Amino acid sequence: MASIQKDLDWTSILLWIGLSIIGLIAIYSATQGPVSEFLPTFIQNNFWKQLLFVGISLGLLFGIQFINPTIFKNFSYVAYAISLLLMVYTLFFGQEINGAKSWLRFGGFGLQSSEFMKITTILAAANFLTSRRNLATEQIRYALVSFLIIFIPTLLVIAQNDFGTAIIFLALIPVILFWSGLPYGVALLMVSPAIILYLSVFSWVYGLIAMGIITAGVLFLQRSKWLTIVTVIMGSATVVVVQLALTKILQPHQVARVIAFTNPSYDPTGAGWNVIQAKTAIGSGGWTGKGFLEGTQTQLRFLPEQWTDFIFCVVGEEFGFLGASILILVFMLFLLRLLQLSINHKNPFAQLVTLSVAAVYFMHFFINVGSATALLPVIGIPLPFISYGGSAFIANTLMLAICLNMDLYKREFSIYS
Description:
By secondary structure, this protein is mostly helical. The protein has three domains: 216 residues, no CATH class; 111 residues; 67 residues, no CATH class. The protein contains 19 helices and three strands. It has a three-stranded antiparallel β-sheet. Helix 11 packs antiparallel against helix 12, helix 16 packs antiparallel against helix 17 and helix 17 packs antiparallel against helix 18. The radius of gyration is 22 Å and the shape is globular.
C-alpha cells in the first residue's frame, strides 16, 4: 500500500497552496482595502468566506487520499447521472445570478451545480473511452459517444444561460478526440468551427482565411475529398452564422459587447468600459506595481468584478509585471506538474482523467487572463484557485485531489482496474 506521507505528490500540493495564497491576497485587496467603503457588506465578507472555502478544500484534498481509486471509475456513470439531474433541477428551481440560472441556495451559501458537473463529466467520458477494448477499429463511433457525454451537460449549461462555463465543457472535446485515436484530420474538422467563429468576430475575411488554412490541413492529413468538402461547408456556415448573429439575431447590447472586444473605444462608457479599465489597471502597475492596497483602479472601484473575473488585474496593478509573472509562472508549473503525473500513469483511465483536469484548468486560465488583457472577449470565467467562489474552488480542488489519489496509488492501480 502507498504511504500518504511518503508517496503523495507534495509538489502539486505546494503549488496549489501557493496559488491559494495569491488568491487570498488578491481577494483581500479587492474587498477589504479602501475599496470596502464602496462595497456592500456581503461583498466585503467574500475574503472570509474564501478563507473558509480554502480550509474546507484542504480537508477534502487530504481526506480523498484515503479512498480506493477504483471508486472514481466504478461510480462514474452513476455520479454523472446524478449530476445531470441536479443540473436539470437547477434549471427549473435554481437562483439566477448575473443572468445565469445556475445556482442553488443553501442558507447563506450558493452551490453552482455546473462546477461539479465538470468532475463527473470527465470521469464518465474517461471511463467510457478507456473501457473500450476495440477502440482502434471503431474510433469514430466511440468518439461520437464521448462527444455526446460532454455535449449533453453543455446544452444544459447553455440553457442556464452560462455560456462561459459551456465553453469550458466544449474545451474537453479536443482532448477526448485526440486521446481516442481519432484521425488528426477528423479531429481538426470537429474543432474548426470554434477557431473560425473566434476569428470571424474580428472580420469575416479572417474567418474565411482560417477556413482555407484548416481545409488545406484536413486535405493534407486525410486525403479525403468528402471531408474536405464538409470542412468548406462547415467553415462557410460558421462565417455566415457569425455575420447574421451580429447583424440580425443578437440584441444591440450583445452586439456592442462583441464589438467592444475588437474596439473598446467603440462604447467606452458602456460595453467597452470593462476592457478599458482592465487594461488601465494592468498597464498602470508597471514593473513592480503600486503596492498592496494601493491600486487606484482597484481601491476606487473602477474595476468590474475585481474579486472574480478581473482578479488578475488586481495582481497586475498592485504587484506589477513581476507579480503577474509570478502568478503565471506558478500556474504554468502547476499545469506542467499535472501533465507529468499524467505521463507517469500506465493506467489509461487515470492518464485521461489527469490530462482532462489539466485541460480544464488551462482553459480557465487562458480565457480569464485573455479577457483581462483584452486578448479575448469578456466571457466571465474565474481564475482557478485565485478568483473568489466556493463552488469553483472546492470543485477545482476535488479534481486535483482525484488526480493526486490516482497518482498516489498508481502502483496498485492496475490491480484495482
